[in-house]
Batch of 2 targets.
Target 1
Amino acid sequence: MDLSYSEDRLTAVHGIAKSLAIKHHEEYFAGVFRSYLAQGLFWKGGGEGNKNEHFPTWLWASRQFSMFRKDETNGRPLVRCVRPQKFPTIDETADFSTPSRRILRLDAPVVSFDRLGVIKKGRLRHWRITDHGDSALWPGGVYGVDLDDELDYFPDLVDVKFLILMRCQAARRSRIPFYVGLVLQNSREYGEDTYKRIGTMETKKYGFAANVTNVESQRLEVSLI
């Protein structure tokens, strides 16, 4: 589909999404279905020069190139939308003209780190990092991180958190679950608990086996903008 403006991407899919929402008694807003919230937030994409500042960072339309990976969208969601409890109705136009209209309030396990070691920067935007601190999630564990932008350094840990979206099942030969989520960076100009998305994280490739109770114990409410 040839669109004159990248801001038209949501408008282009709205009609189809609205029909699906009505048919399946679903809530839909701004490119995301409520019952598939975790899957709708776990997209990958980025690179320099393809940002669209018209959209909030959590929305796939904020990047010219974004994709969803099927093998990482069949897990058990650990995130839910709060305040407001309902999405705006499907008849409302997505208006992101003010900061308050760009915020998505979420309840999910959120992990902070005091010491992370960069083991390797692989392909463009991809980092392999280890937790050298005492995080409740996975002390000593190794994470795969894909940043949305190409950076020569990993962002300051003071401002970084991992928001866990889903607990997924590993390949059929392995019973070890893995977790996927978002990498967030604090946006203090909008409030202490307000963050922008800067990438995605996963534990699939590195033998993750955290205690589920530990994951649930890290639940917080945060705002994504």
Target 2
Amino acid sequence: MATGQSLRRALAMAAAVTLVVVVAAAAANGAAAQACARRVARCNPRVDYFRNKVKPIAHATTLSGLRYTNTYVDVTVQAEEGKAPIRYRFVRCGCRAPAAGRVRIYVPPAKVYVGDTSTLSQVVLEIGSLDRVAVIGSVFYTYSPTVRRRVAAGRIASLTPSSTIFTPPYAQLLNASLTKVRGSSTPLLALIPSRAVKTFKEAVGNRIPYVTSGELDEVTPLGRAEYVKFFGIVMDRSGQADDAYDAIVRRYNNAKRLAARARARPSTLVGFPFGGVWTQPGEKEYSARFLADANADHRYQRDGKTLPTSLTGAQIVRDFGSAEVWVNAGLYPSSPSLTLDQLLADDPKLTANVFSKLRSVQCGRVWSNQRRVSADGLANDYFEEGAVRPDKILEDLVRLFHPSVRVPGDFHFYYWLGRPSRLRCPTASLFGR
């Protein structure tokens, strides 16, 4: 009997110590430790629990300080320009590690909330962690057919209940019936875009730990795509993340080499006017790098700016009226079958004052990036998968800018709008059509 009582006392003391450790970890981190998976039963600090590692950061300028130990990984993220960087420590589930002034997250998380569609594409397509996704921000603005099917089947929840609601009700993430993760006061880890952190924290306080990233502040396609490594660490899929990024870099650089062989550099116009304003990328902006690497010319390609320039319709005609190709044209909701005549008919006044005066329109050299959109036109895969697969975007651009250059495969995000029926091209067609 005395032996049994001693054993029960020992177990009770061990449970109390464990509880203290978890609570202490929560206090040091500013938030409770989230539920994690594949817990190590007896963590040995001499054992390497991160055998699969991502390679050093090569292109992303907002990621730094990558350092592996046996039981945790350190990464620093510059999530928002002008603000202090966030120093993360990703700890193997079941192991202990001092916070040392860092945000401590236990990996892999049991379940995650994914707030941004580009992050969703990385987690689902590139590193294969779909089964860890419990909730997404909005199914209405998600393209992925696989994710949409899971939402329809009740296997993933959509935090936003309507396409007309743009701020997710983050407090609902505390509801276990929504997350389907029970037995933890903080059931999941939230992957939050930096622009939403303030609203998220106002709604849930420190009750749900979160990870945010600086991918949207990356000004190069390969820098933005390298965040797949970061999310590979978060989801404990580093090997898959490293392989995915290597393939992206290889295909991107191959497309860039093919484009460099083309003799002509077609001049370009980008985007579509909204509210009477038409923006064009500056030299150091994200979308401008695609044009440069696709061996295409743009009037502002050497203006030294990191932000886009806003122009009126008259200014577009003045500066880009002679541009040979117009890319990223389209209406909203999006359509994968819009014709140039339909685009011109949508706003007769804008067509008369601007569109009809553009050589790219007159000659039928207009391309849309809406080839892959949801049935209702609200979600566009160009902004979802395209955000993490710049190689596919660049391949498309090389195909449309340089038809004589043979790029393996077919168009993924872009399609041609055809010729206008009532306008005459003043020059020979760039594409021989």
